[in-house]
Amino acid sequence: MSHSLKRLIKALHKQGLTILKNNNVYQIGKVDDSKFPPIEVLLPEHFPLDNKALKQLINFAGVYHPQGGVVNTVKATPDFHAGSIVPVGAVVSTSNNFIIPQAIGTDIHCGMRLHVADIEIEQWQSKKLLLVKKLRADLLLGSRDLPMSTSSFKALFQYGLLGWLDKVKNKPLGDLRFADINQLEEELENVFELGSESGSNHWVPENLITDKREVVRDAALATIGGGNHFVEFQLLDDVYDGKQAFSWGIKKNQIAVMIHTGSRGVGQYVGNYWIDKAKKAWPTKHKYPENKIFPLYGELAKNYLVAMNSAANYANLNRLLLAEIVRRRIREVFGSNIEMSLVYDGPHNIVTHEKGSFIHRKGATPAHKDQPVLIPGSMGHSSYLMKGLGNEDYLCSASHGAGRAKSRHEMFRLNRDGKDLGVGCIDCVTLKEERIVEEAPVAYNNIEDVIAVQVKNKIVTPVAKMKPLLTFKG
Fold first, then answer.
1. What are phi and psi of 302, to 5 degrees?
2. Looking at residue 201, which CATH number applies to its domain?
3. Alpha carbon distance 468, 312 (integer Å)
């Protein structure tokens, strides 16, 4: 047992908490408190247990509301690390009508999208610079042209991509005139919940649905965002499950496009509103919770779910449009016959209603039986396409990446000290050079270890591996 783990056990003991390690699983409980929910953290053998992240996870286990509701179970995936309030890689199950907005935060429905294209690697290399020139303008300089009718935005927020497509198919505007709308409609089968949650226009920014004008130009739509979000080109390097890969339309040596982004300004608007509302709605006769985490119970929880779904619908459109920008440029450079079909689009920052409980996933991917699961590495390491096994012991959830090993502050310190950050092997297009330092390969855990421990514990099984070729960072 390491010295740091011994210190952690001693510190937890003073709080009346116990910690046991069983193979790769840390189990945390509370002495003489049957109401304290079980906490489990799954980590590769040599990964340290992040003390700050664990404290944050324990705080969420203790969340309550005076009017009712309980936390049932708390889990953490192998990319577990500390966040501002919520640890990334947290999966929290609560009772019906009991939701914790802070467990999701403001990047609502952030997720991954994966497309594949039949392009030979030699052809890719020979025309890459032309593609980069076109996409740099679209993705980083704002040259895209995506006006939206307010009626299509209203349909999006209320009905999701199904409603949005119904509005735009008859009169596509701007760059959407070049899109194959029928293909977009068919691909909804490969989007989580068809990209169409039950939302409402009541909770979204008014400027996107105003009746004062017919067409809106939203500067945030079809943008990557900052931090670890990206658009990445990859080579489908290996296939482990040929039968499953064939059914999902993938094969070795294809070019893959992986997109990681979320709900942008809409998520910020909805998330901040409800985090603030939960605090204001706290019953006045009761003390504020010591952990400063404010849940919602009853009707307010139901309303939050509708508001969150509205932002989720926007996130789905954001990823769809980013992919459509890439698809258009791919066809211009490599040929109009390139299909660039969608493999899957799924979230990892969302609340879902499953078997009478609300499952809060913060940086954790749904991994139900036979469901595609996208787990990217850093921009210098491989990413994986997995298949979920529906393991209910882990709340049908997998990691959403390798997990951050070093903070952004630490990365800048290492860079100042002249340390090797592993950036020699990457090809990154960005307007902000600090992104390369913040998101350098050294900042992240070993993706192979993160994948292996989840395979060992029967959470997911591997289908294919992709190695990075070129990454766009916002």
1. -65, -40
2. 3.90.1860.10
3. 27
Whole-number Å distance between alpha carbons of 291 and 432: 36
Burial class from Cβ neighbours inside 10 Å (0-12, 13-18, 19+) for residue 171 reads exposed
The tokens describing 59, both together, are: 């705080």
- First vs last C-alpha separation in the chain: 42
CA neighbor of 474 nearest in space, from 179, 99, 60, 107: 107
pTM of the model: 0.96
Q: What is the bridge-based pairing of β-strands 460-473 and 428-430?
A: parallel
353 CB neighbour count, 10 Å cutoff: 11
In a domain, 413, yes or no: no
Question: Measured between alpha carbons, how far is 327 from 134 in angstroms, rounded to an integer?
Answer: 12
Those residues with Cβ within 8 angstroms of residue 1's Cβ, 6 or more apart along the chain or in another chain: none
In a domain, 383, yes or no: yes
| Domain-embedded: residue 364 | yes
Q: What is the pLDDT of residues 29-64, one digit of tens each?
A: 987 777 889 899 999 999 999 999 999 999 999 999
Which residue range is the domain that position 238 belongs to?
A: 3-405+444-473
Residue 343 CA to residue 385 CA, distance in Å, equals 10
Q: Where are the beta strands (DSSP E) in 318-452?
A: 341-347, 349-354, 357-362, 364-366, 372-375, 383-388, 397-399, 428-430
> Residue 179 has which token pair?
């899109």
- Cα gap 369→392, rounded to integer Å: 10
Assess if residue 158 is contained within a domain. Answer: yes
What is the domain count for the chain?
1
